Amino acid sequence: MDLNLEGKRAVVTGASLGIGEASVKMLAEHGADVSFCARNKEAVETLSSQKIKAGSIKGYQADMGDKESTEGFIESVLSDGPVDILVNNVGASPSRNFLYMTDEDWQELHELNLLSAVRCTRAFLPNMREKKWGRVVMISSSAGKYPSAALIDYGATKAAMISISKSLAKKYGSDGVLINSVLPGLIHTAMWERAATEIAEATGGKMEEVIKGNGKSVPVGRYGTSEEVASLVTFLCSNAASYISGTSIEVDGGQSGHI
After folding, report:
1. pLDDT over 90 for what percent of the chain?
2. Which residues neighbour 134 within 8 Å (Cβ) at sequence distance 6 or greater?
3. 200, 222, 258 from 217: Cα distances, Å
């Protein structure tokens, strides 16, 4: 199986921790030269200092919810040369009541979750087409396919990412650019720890107990890890996945129930 990414330039957005951070490390470990961004300066410096035997890691501080900051990040990346691989990972998932969400709430989340992916894809796609080789991976969510009453605007942005990836896959597949979506389910990240902490505080329990209890709802009996999602991302970015495009693949321990 050819997972070698030596000589490829990759970009991962929103990589301060979790799936983004794991994807940066795994792509680099397989030979890619990876550029990433995050809002937190300390997180950028920490990940950039990681020692990788194969590829390299270079970080930029950027707020992907801000158009000018996003465009600055894109410009900095392109100044070093064309991009072969793009992982649109950045995103937030606030839980809030539909009736109390303002237009600004909707617009801000769409800027971060959706328009950041649109802007990066639009910027890096031309070079991929020219080289007749490219990979774009949208980190969507199971909420994009199975809507949640608590994550209405989040689910809408993630569903849009799936739709866009399928449309672009049809349009640019003949140019050698493969575009897919990855749909994580319950993954043990800081986001889910925060949610579990809130539940624990409300019920008088412990965060670890909430995590363990929620994991029982998954057929494999536990939360997934960021590295397990990153493994699929790396595969989709490799030559081993050369006939996979326009798909939306769930990484959820068997939790989804559709045929």
Report:
1. 81
2. 84, 85, 86, 124, 125, 127, 128, 172, 175, 176, 177, 178
3. 17, 8, 16
pLDDT at 246 over 90: yes
Give the active site residue among 100, 154, 172, 243: 154
Among 159, 178, 184, smallest CA distance to 20 is for 184
Taking the whole predicted model, whether its pTM rises above 0.70 is answered as: yes
| Contact of 20 with 97, CB cutoff 8 Å | no
Q: How many CB atoms lie within 10 A of CB 186?
A: 19
Strand stretches in the chain, DSSP E: 9-12, 33-38, 56-61, 85-88, 134-139, 177-184, 248-251
Q: Is residue 234 scored above 80 in pLDDT? A: yes
The candidate with the shortest Cα–Cα distance to 172, out of 217, 201, 135, is 135
Our answer to whether residue 154 is catalytic in this structure is yes
| Residue 114, token pair as written in the block | 């959706």
Distance CA 186, CA 158 (A): 15
